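re the bet — no i am not wrong, look at it urself. input seq straight from the record:
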Amino acid sequence: MKVRMAQRPDAERLVALVNSAYRGDGAKKGWTTEADLLGGQRVDVQGMELLLNAPDSVILLAEDSEGFIGCVEVKSTEQGCYIGMLTVDPTLQNKGVGKILLEHAEEYAAGKGSPRAFMTVIGVREELIAWYERRGYRRTGVQQDFPTHDPRFGIPKVAPEMLRFEVLEKTLSSNPSST
């Protein structure tokens, strides 16, 4: 497996990967699916291209000889680096790909001088939050509303209060290795 920065020509294949891991029946092959909470898409090509072209954001892409197997977004903000859209092909989950991608994202963020990484996770996804906690993230007590009014992010299958985000954060090492 190698990890590299995604480029604009990768957009369509990235969208297919992300949507396959988060939504629909195929996503249920993995343990990180949102398919029971949200229908529709997780991201579209236009949204992915915006992320790929944003000057303050990168998408780190994991690939092997078979193709794309995972990705993660790292976005610089005034509060630190936001880590989002951590995606692993559902058939390859529980094989360490997500852990490696998360480590690369944290190293990238620390290399940018960010003192902390933060993310949002749907609060009812306790198993996923526990996975992040085992990797040093902690709940901040801050919650955010899910954009239930915008179908570009998914179509709710549950009550809106079940889709509230929990904000998690982690202090990053001051001596990062390069990514």
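see?? The longest strand covers residues 67-77. told u. also DSSP finds five helices and nine strands in the chain. so pay up
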